[in-house]
Amino acid sequence: MNASASRWEAVIGLEVHAQLSTRTKIFCACPTQFGSRANSQTCPVCLGLPGVLPVLNRQVVDCALRLGLACGSRIAPASVFARKNYFYPDLPKNYQISQYDKPLCEGGQVEMMVDGHPRTARLVRIHLEEDAGKSMHDQTGGTTSLVDLNRCGVPLAEIVGEPDLRHPEEAGAYLTALRQLVRYLGICDGNMEEGSLRCDANVSVRPTGASTFGTRVEIKNMNSIRGVVAALEHEIRRQGKLLDEGGTVNQETRTWDPDRGVTVFMRSKEHAHDYRYFPDPDLVPLHVDEAWLARVRTQLPELPMARLQRFTAQYALPVYDAVLLTESRELADYYEDLARTLGDAKQASNWMMAEVLRLLNERGESIGRFSVRPPAVAALLHLVKDGAISGKIAKEVFDEMVATGAPAEAIVARRGLRQISDEPSLTAAVDKILDAHPGQVKAYLGGKEGLAGFFVGQLMQATAGQANPKLANQLVRAALERRRSPA
Ligand code: ADP
Ligand code: MG
Ligand code: ZN
Question: Which of 48, 167, 368, 477 can bridge 93 by disulfide, Cβ–Cβ 3.0-4.6 Å?
Fold first, then answer.
């Protein structure tokens, strides 16, 4: 660590936009589907034509309430939509409908894991707003800009975090936890590359141990969690160096350049917009009563951190394993299915950690699309339990199950992989091997006991690896001992 890094401490607060996965937009019935032909999903409402009225989509509120309740936020009985006024070609109304001084959710927290330890970071608020369109500059190689308004009116939840984070890795853990949470809740696909989850990072530095905050810089344009961490690392170094050299940090917005690995000046505070917020006269206040909240509450799934803790307690899993196995709802469901069917949580987690996760990684596949389902895996592991196949053979069989979709039993039968546990035939094979290697037998009996392994190896070769390994060992030693004293 250099001197500058220890003199300055970072303070980080994230603003995250989550695109809510409703079928239609927030104030009109246009579809929200990603990647459709430009401007094919628009109507007079989301195009901002005169004489139209927005109608709030109830599903959007349901999504935000799920998130608010999951984070322990206070839900406002009445919240207000406001117009945020600014001019930009991708915003045909010249204002964005958002929430300002009366947001839907206030307070609450995000629970996360940092280096295997649980931590929380507080939230300022969660509010609803509509997305703007997308400008595409210089797509044709010239100076033209194109605009796609399909995204206008797509529902967003903006999640504003308190400046509770102190390290870039903590910011990464916060985003990881938030992405996991919205996926568990089924309210957002969490895809940062497609922009379904977007993050602006605010960061300042202060002398280590100070109690006040320094001047913050806002960084935009990171499209992965790793990008956020890298941008923060760079920006913290930049601010520390600036202060070390006797300079000051200006409140400004910077953009992350992933190719060069630096943040670049975008605009200063003086050029910040004056949004002239006022309540949208076209929308009545949003009233959420107890009955609505109760309905949403009963539909909440078990949340990621609760599930992680239950996994460590109920299945005696190490935290590391529990973190991996609860990464997504589908993976956790898969594991619990397997543990139940198999009746052995430990064997199930070993197999998940070593084999299932390995194959998912190799194939770049998600568990939801993984063709071999828990009952088929349980059938395979039962063969190991019953001594029909060894653990080593089971891995081979599993690879083939994944490749061909055939059940374990069929593969074992077709390839003749069943373990040989038949004592008389194995003993006969051992005797034959000992007869063929009189020199080694003599050496063994003379004290070179390590040669037992050689004979076991020979037996394995003779049986194409199918001799029950434990039994093979026993039988080899017994046969050798029988030759010790000539009867
Ligand atoms: P704005 O409305 O201009 O975006 P806010 O006060 O709402 O400003 O703050 C936005 C974000 O900035 C929040 O996530 C908050 O945690 C973070 N933040 C505020 N002050 C600081 C600071 N001094 N250093 C780092 N982050 C900060
Ligand atoms: Mg901001
Ligand atoms: Zn529309």
Answer: 48
